[in-house]
């Protein structure tokens, strides 16, 4: 049964014809009407203008007032089986940006729901709870730190307030996490599916990978099709880069000796000659033959005599640590946090979120020095290869490659190192119901924001763009963040046959739940042109663009490493290894002479001095152009206020935040919509 207004229960009458997304021809709230069927079969007119997606059902609605704003905003609170939205009087969804509204909260994004009656009566409503009173207002806390506070009108409308609140509670209880992230049909949004072109390469075709390889000038690498049917690893992309001289048959055997079949692949080729690779942990229980071991060593060396294995998780938090820190941070930033004002900053340090951000930046800085100081192969190794490998690889490229700091370059970076590489977005963001929730990607965005604060002229994109991306991870519009692997995205979108992993060219028809051509990077379907202009950083210095960077393959840029050397980078220092593989001693790699033994580095700067200054007969090498080494000391790592404190604007004001009229009007910042008293 669906709750309706004024104590009645309604079923939605089917529309005679399907309207275009966001183009329902009404007069807006207060003028447009939606015809519903009441319990007695009579037509009931309801004043609302919610544009329903396919499969969306209105469960309840109630007139209300958006509180926390000056002046307060009257409108209607609407609950459906996909979202909760507040629609101000006179508001109408734009035809140009049909996919989202600044007033929408997907059910998956609701982290906490509170009902309030009087000055002291507050009830926390969990999925399946029973409301004990008729609320005067409700507070919806988003997991993205947004806040929606709605007060209900008096004068005989109390049943509606009760019904819409209970509808939200029941919708959250009845919808499984997978259903909450089931997606919305967008086949009629924007241009037709035949004419729409992704704003950036989605890396779903071999042509996309070949184009990217040529852009990086990775001449020693090729695009492998060994995983085209996902029979090597479903968490890997269909295509990836491997050394030219490595056969696909060797790749198939070698990858079987790594955790989840995630063997070494190229992440990024440095213009000076170094290569940054990533892989899963060695599967030590396997028993590879000599040919397999040679193939593994060849892929890890990637044609270099100097190889550095990086223990990714060394000195970084565990997934459980990240999740706990994020929960503590969110609780601290709630408007009703019980922490006293004079203890707020110490409580912030107690969350450990800033410490983990600092650790990630420090380690990425160290790896950047390793990549840029000598011509070598640097291999990031994490057991699962799906979380911190992506974070570190992305940060290293941001620190070392100016093209990654452009708007298109950064989007391509996220698509390649996170989406295509198989980061389990759905699981880590709590959408699968599993116990492995940990917002690693949000931690990465915080790290990027820190870099933006320290090097404002080096980045083409702005803080507003990072906020938009931060808030897009729980919006059920596209498949970008709604699945854990490329295989799951392809299967959901109809690119694969039902009972096989065989790829089927082309895109699905209108009957599929999500149009796979629409990605999170289709910003023009969510934001207006005026808002998208705010994605660009006005302080960006064009002199830092890729065209002004050093030429590709500049021979004098980097110096070669020691002959046939293998290193383990752990706890800020390089330790020599006698072998690359854990299964047996490898006579093909020489032990490192004692004259190469380094001193432990206590910072990225000392590691840089050590790397560029040793051995002395090579001479010192200047800091490479374009390389950024961020500061990681206490006050240099700051709280991302516009993200985490937007539900507590009074805290932002007390911290010296300044607002402008244009800034307050941007939905991507959510200042106006999240202010609470």
From TrEMBL:
A GO term from the CC aspect: cytoplasm
InterPro entries: MTMR12-like_C, Myotubularin, Myotubularin-like_Pase_dom, Prot-tyrosine_phosphatase-like
Positions of region (Disordered): 1-26
Alphabetized Pfam families for the sequence: 3-PAP, Myotub-related
GO biological process: phosphatidylinositol dephosphorylation
Domain Myotubularin phosphatase: 203-644
Family: Belongs to the protein-tyrosine phosphatase family. Non-receptor class myotubularin subfamily.
Name this protein carries in UniProt: Myotubularin phosphatase domain-containing protein
């Amino acid at each position: 049964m669906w709750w309706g207004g004024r104590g009645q229960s309604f079923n939605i009458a089917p529309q005679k014809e399907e309207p275009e997304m966001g183009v329902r021809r009404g007069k807006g709230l207060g003028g447009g009407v939606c015809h519903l069927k009441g319990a007695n079969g009579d037509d009931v007119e309801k004043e609302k203008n919610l544009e329903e997606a396919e499969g969306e059902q209105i469960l309840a609605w109630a007139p209300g007032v958006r509180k926390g704003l000056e002046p307060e905003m009257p409108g209607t609170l609407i609950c459906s089986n996909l979202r909760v939205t507040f629609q101000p009087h006179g508001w109408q969804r734009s035809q140009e940006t049909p996919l989202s509204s600044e007033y929408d909260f997907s059910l998956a994004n609701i982290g906490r729901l509170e009902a309030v009656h009087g000055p002291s009566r507050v009830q926390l409503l969990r999925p399946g709870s029973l409301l004990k009173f008729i609320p005067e207002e409700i507070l919806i806390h988003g997991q993205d730190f947004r806040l929606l506070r709605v007060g209900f009108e008096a004068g005989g409308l109390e049943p509606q307030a009760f019904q819409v609140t209970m509808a939200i509670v029941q919708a959250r209880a009845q919808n499984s996490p997978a259903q909450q992230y089931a997606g919305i049909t967008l086949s009629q949004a924007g241009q037709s599916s035949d004419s729409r072109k992704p704003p950036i390469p989605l890396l779903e075709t071999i042509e996309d990978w070949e184009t990217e390889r040529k852009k990086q000038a990775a001449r020693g690498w090729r695009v492998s099709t060994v995983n085209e049917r996902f029979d090597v690893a479903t968490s890997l992309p269909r295509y990836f880069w491997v050394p030219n001289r490595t056969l696909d048959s060797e790749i198939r055997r070698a990858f079987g000796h790594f955790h989840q079949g995630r063997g070494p692949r190229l992440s990024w080729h440095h213009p000076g000659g170094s290569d940054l690779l990533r892989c899963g942990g060695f599967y030590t229980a396997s028993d590879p033959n000599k040919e397999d071991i040679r193939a593994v060593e060849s892929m890890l060396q990637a044609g270099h005599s100097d190889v550095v294995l990086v223990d990714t998780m060394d000195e970084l938090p565990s997934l459980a640590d990240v999740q706990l820190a994020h929960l503590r941070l969110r609780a601290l930033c709630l408007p009703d946090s019980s922490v006293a004002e004079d203890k707020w900053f110490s409580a912030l340090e107690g969350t450990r979120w800033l410490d983990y951000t600092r650790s990630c930046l420090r380690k990425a800085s160290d790896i950047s020095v390793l990549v840029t100081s000598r011509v070598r192969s640097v291999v990031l190794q994490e057991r699962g290869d799906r979380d911190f490998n992506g974070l570190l690889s992305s940060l290293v490229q941001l620190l070392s490659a100016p093209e990654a700091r452009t708007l298109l370059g950064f989007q391509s970076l996220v698509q390649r190192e996170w989406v295509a590489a198989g980061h389990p977005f759905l699981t880590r963001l709590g959408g699968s119901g599993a116990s492995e929730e940990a917002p690693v990607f949000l931690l990465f965005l915080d790290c990027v924001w820190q870099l933006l604060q320290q090097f404002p002229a080096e980045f083409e994109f702005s803080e507003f763009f990072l906020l938009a991306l931060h808030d897009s991870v729980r919006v059920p519009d596209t498949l970008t963040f709604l699945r854990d692997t490329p295989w799951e995205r392809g299967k959901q979108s109809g690119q694969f046959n039902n009972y096989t992993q065989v790829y089927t060219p082309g895109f699905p028809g209108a009957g599929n739940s999500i149009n796979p051509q629409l990605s999170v990077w289709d910003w023009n379907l969510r934001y207006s042109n005026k808002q998208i202009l705010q994605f660009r950083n006005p302080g960006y210095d064009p002199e830092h663009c890729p065209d002004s960077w050093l030429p590709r393959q500049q021979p004098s840029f980097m110096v070669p490493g020691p002959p046939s050397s293998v290193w383990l980078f752990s706890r800020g220092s390089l330790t020599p290894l006698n072998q690359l593989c854990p299964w047996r001693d490898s006579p093909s790699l020489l032990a490192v002479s004692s004259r190469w033994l380094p001193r432990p580095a206590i910072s990225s700067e000392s590691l840089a001095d050590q790397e560029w200054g040793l051995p002395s007969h090579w001479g010192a090498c200047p800091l490479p152009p374009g390389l950024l080494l961020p500061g990681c000391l206490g006050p240099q790592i700051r709280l991302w206020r516009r993200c985490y404190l937007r539900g507590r604007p009074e805290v932002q004001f007390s911290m010296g935040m300044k607002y402008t009229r244009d800034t307050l009007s941007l939905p991507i910042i959510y200042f106006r919509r999240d202010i609470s008293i």
